[in-house]
Design brief:
This protein has 284 residues and is an alpha/beta fold. It is built from 11 helices and 9 strands. It has 2 domains: 8-192, Alpha-Beta Complex (Spore Coat Polysaccharide Biosynthesis Protein SpsA, Chain A), CATH 3.90.550.10; 198-279, no CATH class.
């Protein structure tokens, strides 16, 4: 008798994602693997996100609190029926075999969780998205990724779930706190949206800056001085960062947009560090 596949719970935190969540859910329901439930946790949205999610009958919508994606993911995990949890973002879409291939290695004993091996920006016609980068995760770099995209539910709960205090990096907190790292699942392609305006670039960089877990930046004196030292380095740092990023993308035509882009990224990061150190604030 053929053994029935274990049910999988796909968990998606959302916060004002009315422009993207419909495409994400539509992509999930076109997967070749179908034995999964979808749990969407609304992290306090004020737009039409809730209304759009309600149109998908197979989705379990949970009203959460505006405490960040880590809190929402943990809430979804507690409500999940699946033995395997899959964590994705609302602005992602997926190759049709994504869920099947992402969870396949978890059938083997001793594997706690997996990450995908290829993540491509979906909106590269936008100039600021191109500056951010077309390839978000390459097959060569995937082995260094510490973000769990699929994980055994019992192991996840045993480790206490994600730690929301890490903000943007909460999905790396299993590595930070427990030194547990995912294995790379082959042939797991997904597409992710990059920021499309300088305001979005700034806000994303601010969130990343507030989430940095750097040993040097955590030193008692350095962490209080870091925002001000980084401001002093502006005339040198921004041109060098723009040149390096342009060289990496092998597109000299991006040099001037890249300078503007890097100004938004740099100052966003500085504000994020300032908010973390002086305001103890780390939310989107």
């Amino acid at each position: 008798m053929k053994q029935k596949s274990k049910i999988i719970s796909v968990i998606i935190p959302v916060y004002n994602e009315e422009n993207y969540i419909g495409k994400c859910l539509g992509s999930l329901f076109k997967q070749t693997f179908s034995n999964f439930e979808v749990i969407v946790i609304d992290d306090g949205s004020t737009d039409r996100t809730h209304e759009i999610v309600r149109k998908f009958k197979r989705v379990n919508l949970i009203n959460g609190e505006h405490k960040g994606p880590g809190f929402s993911r943990n809430l979804g995990a507690k409500q999940a029926r699946g033995e395997i949890l899959v964590f994705v973002d609302a602005d992602m879409i997926f190759d049709k075999n994504y869920i099947k291939n992402l969870t396949a290695p978890l059938k083997e004993r001793g594997i706690t969780g997996t990450t995908h091996d290829c993540e491509i920006a979906i909106n590269t016609k936008n100039i600021w998205s191109r500056c951010w980068g077309r390839v978000r995760i390459s097959k060569e770099d995937a082995k260094d990724i510490k973000i769990f995209r699929a994980i055994r539910r019992d192991k996840f709960l045993e480790m206490g779930g994600f730690d929301p205090k890490y903000g943007y990096a909460d999905d790396q907190s299993l590595w930070i706190k427990h030194r547990v790292k995912p294995v790379v699942a082959p042939d797991t392609i997904c597409y992710h949206r990059n920021p499309e305006s300088l305001r979005e670039v700034y806000k994303q960089s601010r969130w990343i800056g507030a989430s940095l877990d750097n040993k040097i930046l955590n030193l008692p004196l350095i962490k209080y001085l870091a925002p001000f030292l980084l401001v002093l380095l502006v005339p040198l740092a921004i041109p060098l960062l723009a040149i390096r990023k342009t060289y990496e993308q092998k597109n000299i035509g991006l040099i001037f947009p890249m300078l503007v882009f890097m100004i938004a990224r740099y100052f966003g990061t500085i504000e994020g560090i300032f908010r973390k150190v002086y305001l103890r604030k780390n939310v989107r």
